[in-house]
Amino acid sequence: MRRIIIIFLLLISFIRFSLFAQVVLSGYTFDNIENKKLSGVKIQLEGTLLGAVSNQDGFFKISKIPKGKYNVIVTLSGYEILKENILLQTDTIINFSLKLKEVSKPEVVVTAARRLQSYQDVPLSITTIERDFFKGKNYFEIKDYVNFVSGLNVNSDNISIRGSSGFQFGSGSRVALLLDGFPFLSGDIGEANINIFPPEIVSRIEIVKGSGSALYGSSAMGGVVNLVTIEPEKNLSTNIQISSGIYTSPKYDEWKYTDKIRTKNNVAVTINSNGSLGKLLLSGQYLNDESYRKFNRSNRLNLFGKYIIPINNGKRISLFGFANYIHSDDGTFWGGAFKATVPPENYNLLRRINRNRFALGLDFLSPIGVNSFYQVKTSLYRTNFESNLPKNDINYRQSTSYSNFNEFQITHHLFENSIVTSGVTVINNWVNSFQYGNRKQNIVSAFTQGEFTAFNLIKVTGGIRTDYDVSDSSDNFFEISPRLGLTYESEKKIILRTSLGKGFRVATISERFASIRYSGFTIEPNPELSPEKSWNFEMGTSFERKLLGHTIFFDASVFYARYENLIEPQFDTNAATPTIRFRNIAKSEIKGIDLSLRLRPFHLFETVLSLTYLDPIDLNTKDILKFRPHLYTIASLNFTFKDLAISLLYKYVSKIVKVEEQLRFILTDYSVRVPTHLVDLNLSYNLSSTGLPIEATFTIQNLLDYYYVDLVGNLGPTRLITLGLKYNFEK
Amino acid sequence: MKWIYLIPLLFIFSCQEGVSPADGERESFVNGKIIVVSGIDSWPRPDSAKELRIIVVPSYPPYNILADILEGRAYLSDTLQRFIDTIPYSVKIQKTPMESAYILASLRFGTILQQKMIGFYKKNPESKVPDSLYIDKGVNLQNLDIFIDFKNLPDQQPIK
After folding, report:
1. What ipTM, to 2 d.p.?
2. What is the per-residue pLDDT across B68-97, written as a single tens digit (0 to 9) for each?
3. Residues of B in Cβ contact (< 8 Å) with A674
4. What pTM was computed for the model?
5. N or C, which end of chain B is more exposed by having fewer CB within 10 Å?
6. Contact A664 B90 (CB under 8 A)
7. SS3 letters across A180-192
8. A672: which chain B residues are within 8 Å (Cβ-Cβ)?
9. Do the beta carbons of residue B132 and residue B60 sit within 8 Å?
10. Does the N-terminal peptide bond of residue B97 adopt cis geometry, omega within 30 degrees of 0?
11. Residue of A nearest to B6 (CA)
12. Do the beta carbons of residue B101 and residue B83 sit within 8 Å?
């Protein structure tokens, strides 16, 4: 602990507190073709809290800027990002002329450096899903949007990026789930459930496809998914969404288990307000799903509120509250391919499970002098689940966990061309569980990351994070996670990037102490689990070019991850019943490529093609890692004409090569698996031109009604047809 | 650039039928444990306990188990562990549905024909006769436990 404090104090001692004379930057923002003034344009000085939004006349003004050299980032949805390096010695007037995007592509991100930066400065592969992608789609859950990112696999309680996770029995996510930088991993099982938030609160989803441990510590070993919430800009905006869908009847008579129509219904209300007292975002969602499978019904309530209070001198406080309640059947695997829509024989159909989650958080942001700012974050995340079985039933499950997160972060312009971000994080987890016992886990971390720009073309990023994990019932761990990155932007705007970093993950309380019956298995504790570690390397390029008269945006990367002590569920074949213990597998590696191409082959059409190829190998057996596919491919076609928008999305995932053979003891047709082919069709028509502030949407998910296996022993969602109406009132 | 649309079409056209009921295994599994209630020490000497298997037989009393096995009407487990008190077992039933009248634990004490029935599956522990079981297509039947008391072995049905 003392080492961490000394390292941190040394780091912040380098910070200089500037007291230079101050200048003003002002000007107008224009559209570059019609020379029309643009409002709502964000003008930000990189690495500072200084910035402004252009008003209705396109005018902006940033005051109290210390003299110096800055990168100005100018952004507006639908337009190309503009980044200019300017020297401010006196009050300056600059007009920014923005160019309409020919192809949609990532512009700015916050996750890779814990602060706003432009996409081309990030040395890692990062995928963003902008709010524009949400428009015209009648999806009820965030996973439906994330599903169309190449290399990602999202199931009910975990996310896997580039094959980082296989089948984990609901324990131990290797991907950190963040909401505005706050971690949302449960303290007991380390679950990263992206579906607990109303989709309407999301402004952008950022997915870091490589280890994020150097900034986000344990659980970010396989990547980071950060949900950036909306920051209200309008005076008052109310959004009401009502959607209803039906699952079509299965093609096979053997799978028809009911004559009743099964529905999926969603009601969501979102209110945004920007007034003199602050900015308010409130959102609520109720989702009822009768499911395409028998005994898979659920009712869900998602609530979220955020209140941003501006204080003088650039300071601001942001408070958020979140609640989620799910009441569902306590389902399991299928009864076999022959009975793919019903649970196994003799399964207790009275089993239900209640899950609830609750969180409160505070984020305080303040400048220090004029060249740096600090941020304090604190939150409490409570999760609870309990089945309705009596406590003496072998399948009874209950767990309550609290995760308290505290963070202090400081960002500073150390020299003219460099920005340093440093911080300290303390996470305390308490668990009170029938299966895992009463446990405590504390993780104290310190991190720092510096970025240095040379010749305006090369950006070098170096960082290190130390984590000290103290658990009450197992060994303590001290981990050091360094990272080095480099980006180079040629004069022809070709971006090259490379990064090398270490990742790690400490076993969750459930992996160490689980003593549980799960879908027919007995999971036994293993308190001796060591942290898993990885070294990750990647190299990539991105550029935008005209090719045969069409603008294309191309992004490619090759990656290599080597894991040690990977924690995977292992079967004990000598035990009396099918028994699993989480054990450290000695060594494995995942290498592969990521390709992405965006273009507009016709004026009204935009196409995105992406591909991820993986080669995940268990180095002990020289065999492929279980539950991992080799290939992901995504293709999308978007057509927009006036108020009509049509999108066609396609996802291919190759067949999972290898599954756990011991599953045969409890799971009928455990070995049945096929490639995944998913096609979604979305149509939307905006009636606002007729005077009605309503958007009508029509969506067919799994248009081909293609039947596939969701990881193992379960039928993936069949065809769902939904109709939705979205009412939007703005003042 | 219009050729770009051919790429996803290639995947879609390569689209197989996906999962269907016909993909299900025709065979089923019978699973459970052999529990030696008389304790580890009650095991016969190794030269009298050469091999332990579970046999799933269609009729009771059995007519000719060896013939049933050879002709695919009865099914054998792999060789099971011995000299412990709890032994998991799994028997693959290849032709289903099947009505099994007799699931027995068989201990080989000599040649392949020298077998001894040391226990059988029954729902009621007090019962003196085995329980029959309907094994549907593609099912995984669990917890069919067989209790063995080496100090009080059941009456022997001839194992031919």
Report:
1. 0.77
2. 888 888 999 988 999 999 998 989 888 878
3. 16, 18-19, 23
4. 0.82
5. C
6. yes
7. CCEECCCCCCCCC
8. 19, 23-25
9. yes
10. yes
11. A635
12. no
Confidence at residue A53, expressed as pLDDT on a 0 to 100 scale: 84
Residue % of chain A over a pLDDT of 90: 51
Which of A597, A609, A672 comes nearest B23 by C-beta? A672
Q: Which residues of B touch A548 (CB under 8 A)?
A: 1
Tell me whether residues A668 and B138 touch, CB distance under 8 A: yes
* pLDDT surpassing 50 at residue A87: yes
Q: Rounded to whole angstroms, what are the CA distances from A542 to A105, A258, A454, A511, A552?
A: 11, 51, 20, 39, 10
What's the rounded Cα separation, in Å, for the pair A507 and A382? 19
Q: Which strand (E) or helix (H) includes residue B66?
A: helix B65-70
Q: Rounded to a whole number, what is the distance in Å from the CA of A205 to chain B's nearest CA?
A: 25
Smallest Cα–Cα separation from A384: which of A453, A323, A456, A314? A323
| Beta-sheet pairing, A51-53 with A458-471 | unpaired
List all residues of chain B from 80 to 99 with a beta carbon under 8 Å from chain A: 81, 86-88, 90
* Token pair for B100: 């099994």
> Would you call B23 and A345 a contact, using CB atoms and an 8 Å cutoff?
no
The answer to whether B57 and B103 have CB atoms below 8 angstroms apart is yes
Q: Is A416 exposed, middle or buried (0-12, 13-18, 19+ CB in 10 A)?
A: exposed
Burial class (CB in 10 A: 0-12, 13-18, 19+), A583: middle
CA dihedral A704, A710, A714, A715 (to 10 degrees): 0
Least confident of A93-102, A280-289, A483-492: A93-102
DSSP H or E run through A503:
strand A495-505
The rounded distance, in Å, linking the Cα atoms of A627 and B27 is: 24
Task: Say how far apart CA A531 and CA A295 lie, in whole Å.
Answer: 37
Pairing verdict, β A202-208 and B140-141? unpaired
Residue with tokens 């003593």: A515
d(CA A263, CA A683): 20
Q: Do A704 and B15 touch (CB under 8 A)?
A: yes
Hey, which residues does A471 pair with through a beta bridge?
A: A441
The Cα A384–Cα A398 span in angstroms is 7
Dihedrals φ, ψ of A254, to 5°? Answer: -60, -25
Chain segment A578-604, per-residue pLDDT in tens: 678 888 887 999 999 999 999 887 777
List Cβ neighbours of A342 (8 Å cut-off, separation of 6 or more): A257, A293, A294, A295, A334, A335
Which residue in A84, A124, A71, A77 sits closest to A105, CA to CA? A77
CB contact under 8 A, A668 and B2: no
Dihedral (CA of A701, A705, A710, A713) sign: positive
Q: Which two tokens stand for residue A610?
A: 């992406």
Q: Is A249 exposed, middle or buried (0-12, 13-18, 19+ CB in 10 A)?
A: middle
Compare all CA atoms of chain B with the CA of A573 and give the residue at the minimum distance: B88
Contacts with B116 (C-beta within 8 Å, 6 or more apart), sequence order: B106, B107, B108, B109, B153, B156, B159
Residue A167 in 3-state DSSP? coil
Q: Is the pLDDT of residue A184 over 90?
A: yes
Spatial distance between the Cα atoms of A215 and A503, rounded to a whole number of angstroms: 10
Cβ atoms of A429 and A185 within 8 Å: the answer is: no
Strands (E) in chain B, as ranges, are 28-36, 51-57, 75-76, 86-93, 98-100, 102-108, 115-120, 133-135, 140-141, 146-148
Q: How far is A204 from chain B (nearest CA, A)?
A: 26
At A620-650, the pLDDT tens digits run 889 999 899 999 999 999 998 889 999 999 9
pLDDT of residue A9: 45
**How far apart, in whole angstroms, are the C-alpha atoms of residue A451 and residue A605?**
38
Instruction: Give, rounded to a whole angstrom, the gap between the first and last alpha carbons of chain A.
Output: 52
